[in-house]
Amino acid sequence: MKKAKDRHASDDSQIFPLTQRFLAWFTRPWLLLGLILSIPAFYLLLAGETDAARRAGHIMYGAVAFIIAGDTVAQWKLNRHRERRSGKMLLDILIVVGCLLSAIPFDTPWSTTGWLLRLGLCAAIVLRIATLVLRQMRPSHLVQMLMLALLMLTSAGAGFYWLEPNVLNYADGVWLAFTTVATVGYGDIVPSTPASKIFAVFIVLFGYAMFSIVTANIAALFVGKEEAVLERELHADIRALAQELAALREELRRRESPLPQNEA
To answer: What are the start-end ranges of the H helices in 86-190?
Structure first.
């Protein structure tokens, strides 16, 4: 019974190895949750038209700082005995500090320094999401990558529908997201507000990373087929050489063996 269970577990690990590697970034779900929540928090402060919306943005930034700080402390306790420290933990600490500062309400408009600091925080968050998620992508993850790209397009469409006044419906938002990610630039709908322009910048950055990986996955499918054919031919040649060597050894052994006495 135990052997049967072990065999069944081994079969499952062989059937779903790609999915297991693809979902490896779920080992830090709280960090991923905090990073994702920081995106609407930024736009609630930037594009919020009411005091309640801006207050919600400050509260959300505080929640993001609390979530990421808790996850960072847990990771530090797990890895505190390692001699080599990871630079990602320092990036997490910088993000926590930036979110704490963003949680403090300021009545004055954003200055140039404030804009630079907030955009730097957004860049750090985008970089951390990339290191957390996109580094797990492999050439064998084409289906998962297409699903992730579709999720990004649908989410970006909702973002443009919220931030851009020229987008009158959700379908136009998805269309603007697609033309932005693909850098086509038809010009029928363009970002016109500071919030939508900043959103478009980060969508383009994500689009470059994601679609380059999708293209690499598609190319890897064709290269993988050619490599499989070459590998089969190489294995066939190796088997043929092994058979020839075995025949030569048998021939040498037969010639070197002493003749029987009745034949001498």
So the answer is: 87-102, 112-132, 142-163, 170-181
Cα–Cα distances (Å) from 207 to 49, 80, 135, 152, 179, in that order, read 29, 36, 15, 9, 10
Distance CA 194, CA 207 (A): 20
- Within 8 A by CB and 6+ apart from 195, the residues are 43, 46, 47, 163
Tell me the angle at which helices 194-256 and 170-181 cross, rounded to the nearest 10 degrees.
Answer: 50
pLDDT digits over 208-258, tens only? 777 777 777 777 767 666 666 667 777 777 888 888 888 888 878 887 776
CA distances from 79 to 10, 102, 170 (A): 30, 29, 45
Nearest Cα to 59, choosing from 41, 80, 76, 46? 41
83-107 exposure pattern, b = at least 16 Cβ within 10 A, e = fewer: eeeeeeeebbeebbebbeebbeeee
The pTM score is 0.62
Alpha helices by DSSP H, the chain: 2-15, 17-22, 29-47, 51-79, 87-102, 112-132, 142-163, 170-181, 194-256
Please name the residues in contact with 165: beta carbons below 8 A apart, sequence gap of 6 or more.
192, 193
Mean pLDDT computed over 96-100: 90
